[in-house]
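Follow-up to my earlier ticket, as requested here are the two runs.
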Amino acid sequence: MESATRLNFTRETFNGQTYNVALIKRYILYPRYSGNIVIESCEADCQVRQAVSGGNNFWAQFYGYYETVQRKIKSPEINISVKNLPPASDDFSGAIGTFNIKMTQSADTVNINDAVTFKLILSGTGNFNMIEIPDIVWPKEFEVYEPVSYDNTNVSTAGVNGSKSWEFTVIPRYPGIFKLGKINFQYFDSNSKQYKTISTNDINLAVRKDENDTKFGETDYVYSQKSIEYIGDEEIRFIKNKDLNLTQNYMPIITDGFFIFYFIFPLIVFILLVIFLRKKIKENADIAMMKIKHAGKVSRKRLKKAKKFMVQNNKAEFYKEIISALWGYAGDRLGIAVADLTKDKILIVMEAIKTDKALSIKLIDIIDKCEYAHFSPNSKETELSYIYKEAVDIIEELEKNLKV
């Protein structure tokens, strides 16, 4: 298929009229079956510039007037009659055109286990897109890898031309002279309208045991691509044919004393892991419950510490311990996380557990007084003894009213 990247117009006459003509697309078609084939019409929307009457405009009447009109154009159907090919042999590849074939190889003489590259090249003009890799039969003495295909073709008015090639990597495993014969390729010649068979050159490969092997030419292996003959099992050249001094020392693993342990050990580890995780979950739940139960005890220890600072008249440390005791008690006793511990949260939780509203307000009031004491330490309500007594009283009242 060829598509024009830029429209180049030429003038052509058709049915007595001259037109500007440009190539839009050109296709190369290869029919796959015989008979009458109809190529359907194609449609295209285009713009046509056509002359119209100029009306009353003087300059339009004198020079002419043009306008662009939208048109839908449609090509006619094309009927093609495809003939049958003459009867062909089983060797026919389905290729139609004119072709040449050749085989190249990277080396003529190699050592055992050296890689050799064979390249089959098919060149010419024809239906390359329908050509598959030709059948090549390799002896079993060769280890052959999957071929790599290369396509180097281009499209022109003459058809598809260029080349198609397949590259084989082969590793010979036995020494000798290997005569592999020729690769045949049959195609239908589109010029002479006859079948033709083309062949590669003879494929020969000499394989040595090593660099010092001078007797590798004494054995010839002659093959045909139609009936490959293999080396029989009795002719296989073993790597070592002397006594290998092998001894039977095999013991099934099931008889090993550790065999059962290999299965039981992962199970034991799994059970211990489950027990450990369940214990951790339970401990985490117990920690939350322990905080609730021991909230009063922890707060009393803090109040006791605050009392020592009160005797020492250490106001800064005193307020610090009192505030810690009140906030800590509220958080632990009500089960509120430190990140969520606020005065509003305390009121909401205490209301949810139906605590006396007066106690809730009193707790918040004591906290406010302690915080206020930092800024007004000379007022009567912020005297250390007064603050201490208020904190002790509210915690004792909450302990009596709150139940675990």
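Run two:
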Amino acid sequence: MFFETLKLALRAISRNMLRSFLTVLGVVIGVAAVIALVTIGNGTTAQVSTELSRLGTNMLFVRPGQFGPGRASSEAKRFSVKDVAAIRGQIGGLRAVAPLNQSTATVISGGQNHSTSVSGTTNDYFIAQDWNLALGRTFTPAEERGQSRCIIGETVRSQLFGAADPLGQQIRVGKVSCPVIGVLAKRGQSGMGTDQDDVVIMPVKVFQRRISGNSNVPQIIISARDGVSTAKVQADVENLLRERRKIIPGRQDDFNVNDMTQIAEAMTGTTTLLTGLLGAVAAISLLVGGIGIMNIMLVSVTERTREIGIRLAIGALEGQVLTQFLVEAVALSLFGGITGIVLGLSLGLVAVTFLKVPFVFSPMMVAVAFLFSAAIGMIFGYFPARRAAQLNPIEALRHE
């Protein structure tokens, strides 16, 4: 009996193919948008997690200021190289402690120029970041104490020197002239889409004297040794900095210390939330598609009033008529859902390839989209189907 009803429903749909296609278009667009956006969001989340995991779980980042209640970062007292030396000298279990100052500047070599990120730090930065050099060397102790030397990223090398050897070549960073002593190993884009290789690194004291013009240290990067608890290191760093910054008991810290686990949770939580919001916005178009199905089914009931009257007059039950029109609505919606899933996965694959993030297939999302499209057909098709089933056979037969 059900197969006969399905056959009648498919025959009715095939009689008006163009109208049926336009009816399901809203569902197709809605499902495709949800699948594509969730796929992009999942890929971005996976990329962020991968990039953060590469830094290891034994990293700590120390910044002035508190986010949320308390003093803003722009108002808080900055750190100094003495704070860096105190952390290195007074806290055990550390592999590296590096100050980090950052700015943007134009770098020039010969007739080539390029705008890039400039960082002032020490050799500990390369240890903390597990960042090796492809060419050249790191800073000598004498250079760290204040000699102008530069280590460049792969992007800067290609922009300024092309295929030529940059080692020993003189470049100008803003108003600072320095020879290139090293080239960093290529890393590519970060999880946030920034080019990690677009960077120039110089000794922190040179940066402070010639670039920033002050002795501030906006950020300290700490790497704990393997097997050392980052929670203990974090507590020790907080206690030391409270003492050095003369924060009395009961007062809130004017700095924050975060480990990679906290940062990873915050970043993945943010991307997951954004993915959910984008999916929810795209799902609104599914409701629009459902309304389109209900509208067309009401038109179909009106057009086929006489046919319905004949079926009822020769003995068809109300439930059979209800089932027929409900099956038509669900079939339309499911066709739109399946087409939307295929289209959404295709668009998602193209998008993640362009954005250079992983393609993360979510069977759960595909199943939810399929079931949701079926539910849309059932919900929005019920009212027209019920209206058809409750037609008076006599009145229906009189309908022209």
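The only thing I checked on run two: The chain has 13 helices and ten strands. Let me know what else you need.
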